């Protein structure tokens, strides 16, 4: 399994622990990070991403998602 596959599974599993909507923006695409298929078609390490998190547990979700993205060396910013 490539490190990218591990990142995708890790991100989707982490996201699915939260009720919040967690959307990854890459260029003009918006991907629900709970969708492994969506991540497979989008996630490349050279890309820069924006994470949009909205919902009742958004603060916890932002923290957890930030940790998992950083762990896999992905370039991202969390958008309020």
From TrEMBL:
Domain spans labelled HPr: 10-70
Domain of life: Bacteria
SUPFAM superfamilies named in the record: HPr-like
InterPro entries: HPr-like (IPR000032), HPr-like_sf (IPR035895)
Pfam families: PTS-HPr
Transmembrane segments: none
Protein name per UniProt: HPr domain-containing protein
